Backbone:
């Protein structure tokens, strides 16, 4: 491990440029990704590239979106870029918590958040691009960059504002110090066994029974033992779909369901009670992602059925995660790599989850999210939780072919990524082809009358 | 009162156009509006005009911002406009809850919220412009449009999704029915006495002691008996400023303080304990606006000092308001007319506040917020709360001169507005002069070197 001085000397140079692109994939044409609230997602990204005069490496980062609205996040990234371009990399990485605070607390921009929605999605793309750059400069995958830092260096990247009633800096340090002696053995182990994954690719809401059966069968053959099904159209329809899936995967494999925020609180309890006999590990996003007390009520209502409560992919920031964790409202903490403000904020959530003994099971899917979150869970295992029990990363088998270093899942587990960076850099050809609205893929679809622009 | 059929017949026509402008006032040059988190606000607006082929009236609406970031909200309004232009006004107003649900749940756009931050600020501007248009067509001020509706018509504008564990549609109806027989007497009374106001104009963080004394003295002479002071720079500085103000206003007048989210939870309690002897009615925004459980802890910690807890101006949506109210975390509910998704959502918050017996004290100030919220509090009094006890509307004496029908405060009370609409239409000359970045006011400041654009 290097000291802060050595690292700072390795990252000379200023940020000279921050590029932003609107990249969209026409996934809605095939009902991939359809759920109870998002009928027709076009998996998309506001895609950031950061260049510096101190290194040949580029930092890449994206925030995931589902089509329309990407243009708003692009606008927000442009507004944030003035606070990044011109900064010294050594100043950013040497006081990353301070830089992050400045970025998220800019005295005028914070009004349109604060720290939530469009402006925070944009922050994630920018901040993750900086982490990607840092990891590339250090010639390490992101999880290894983090796992080579001292506990003091890790907490120096975290802004603890608003967290101290749940987790102080000193408590965070202690958690990291307790794990530090075990890091090397855990790195060895996770490289051997990989990180457990579950698949959502079998059971989107728009799929037919035949498709469900076929995809579940294939997933089993590939080694998956954990499966998630989208629910929320109707109890009868969900019973039918869950029967199809349970018939295929049997009763020993893990099965969970996801309602994507469809229901009110009491309705969540009543609805799930009717599905309880399918032996479900969790109900994900039963209601509004902002409703801490609602999730707590649902958790209490469902505990008699052994159904856990999971949420987090649209949890706006660390303050909401804090409340979900400190109140005991969730059984599974589903971090998203680009919904909160990037790696720095995720680290605080992972540490809070450890304190409150809630397993972190990241949100994957979309475009690039699996590539991102594998690093976060692997860091969690090595430096924080030290456990794989009840911990799984979502895996969705879409769009990985567009990445230079796509994630690899073998036999139902993520293989530890070894390429330098955050695994989020897309191929230049893909970026060009899917650029919205004028990339050749979109021009062609328009020409064929398959889409209408608005 | 008219039935729904009559009202719908009165509003024929389609929305033909939705214009959006970026309007900014260079208030940062004089430290107006400075607080613990916003050092240099340029009071601004994303300003919407809706035109229809069925009426000569235009609907005007704005969302308040503080400078940079307005361009992002403008981008979001453009993205929303495709869902408004072309719609029949009768369809919108005849099923306003449904229209509102469609607007806030658009299957792709909701990802960049949902219902929070930039996209929700944009929603507020659009939705409020529709209400302004409706009120103008009916030739009534907004509060009167609402107060002439039946309980059934009022609830028909509200989306109860995610609220039913705290307030059902039936409970909302009952609250409105209980008050209905008293509406006429209350209209008469509020027109006579006005709605109580408090002033924030005396004590921005950037003001000198001399300015504080002078402005408090003037406010007293104008009839104000309720005052708010910005705090949060340091205990010693706040003690000095509060002493200056208490010396001027005495001990019988109402005094509250506002920290604008500066502190962590325990720090809020410790800090405020040191200011308790100033006899403070409330501490406003002690910590993150997302922290329901944090505010609850602060409320418990401060109850021994008789200091209430207030928040809401940056409360993202009705789901967070629901939790603040149902948990008992706040003593004063500070709605903002353009932070949540416009009048429809505000109505649900006012009704929840009634159920949980928390007085509504709206956030004023900025540009246009006082003009807006007077209508909401007057509606609250006439149709919901029936009480003025512990209820006050913030008043800030800035920028009213730019409105066609500015709010009027006499002797410390808002005078009931009688002009048709939502009082939010700005003068054409003001819109043109302050348009950003190319309006003549900004061009002139740039020429004089008083601002640097970024």
Residues:
């Amino acid at each position: 491990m290097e000291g802060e001085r050595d690292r700072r000397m390795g990252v000379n140079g200023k940020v000279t440029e921050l590029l932003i692109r609107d990249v969209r994939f026409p996934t809605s044409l095939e009902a991939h990704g359809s759920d109870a609230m998002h009928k027709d997602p076009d998996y998309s990204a506001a895609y950031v590239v950061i260049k510096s005069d101190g290194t040949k490496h580029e930092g890449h980062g994206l925030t995931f979106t589902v089509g329309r609205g990407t243009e708003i996040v692009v606008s927000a990234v442009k507004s944030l870029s003035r606070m990044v371009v011109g900064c010294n990399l050594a100043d950013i990485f040497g006081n990353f918590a301070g830089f992050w605070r400045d970025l998220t607390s800019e005295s005028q921009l914070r009004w349109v958040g604060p720290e939530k929605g469009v402006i925070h999605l944009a922050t994630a793309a920018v901040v993750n691009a900086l982490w990607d750059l840092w990891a590339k400069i250090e010639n390490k995958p992101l999880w290894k960059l983090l796992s080579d830092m001292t506990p003091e260096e890790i907490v120096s990247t975290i802004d603890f504002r608003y967290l101290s009633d749940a987790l102080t800096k000193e408590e965070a340090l202690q958690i990291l110090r307790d794990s530090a002696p075990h890091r090397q053995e855990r790195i060895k182990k996770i490289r051997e066994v990989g990180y457990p994954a579950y698949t959502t690719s079998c059971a989107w809401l728009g799929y037919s029974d035949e498709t469900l059966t076929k995809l579940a069968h294939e997933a089993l053959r590939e080694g998956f033992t954990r499966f998630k099904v989208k629910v929320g159209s109707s109890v009868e329809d969900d019973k039918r779909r869950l029967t199809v899936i349970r018939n295929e995967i049997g009763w020993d494999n893990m099965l969970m369901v996801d309602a994507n925020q469809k229901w009110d609180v009491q309705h969540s309890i009543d609805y799930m009670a009717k599905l309880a006999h399918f032996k479900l590990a969790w109900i994900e996003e039963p209601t509004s992602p902002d409703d801490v007390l609602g999730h707590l009520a649902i958790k209490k209502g469902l505990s008699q059925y052994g159904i856990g409560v999971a949420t987090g992919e649209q949890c706006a920031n660390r303050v909401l995660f804090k409340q979900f964790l400190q109140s005991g409202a969730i059984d599974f903490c589903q971090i998203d790599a680009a919904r909160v403000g990037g790696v720095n904020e995720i680290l605080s959530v992972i540490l809070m989850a450890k304190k409150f003994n809630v397993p972190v099971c990241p949100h994957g899917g979309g475009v690039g999210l699996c590539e991102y979150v594998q690093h976060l869970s692997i860091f969690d295992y090595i430096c924080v939780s030290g456990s794989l029990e009840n911990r799984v990363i979502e895996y969705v088998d879409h769009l990985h072919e567009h990445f230079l270093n796509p994630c690899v899942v073998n036999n139902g587990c993520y293989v530890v990524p070894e390429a330098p960076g955050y695994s989020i850099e897309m191929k230049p050809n893909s970026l060009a082809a899917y650029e919205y609205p004028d990339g050749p893929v979109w021009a062609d679809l328009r020409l064929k009358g398959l889409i209408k622009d608005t």
About this structure: Chain B touches chain A through 65 residues (CB under 8 Å). The longest strand of chain B covers residues 15-24. The first helix of chain B runs from residue 4 to 10. Chain B is about 40% helix and 15% strand.
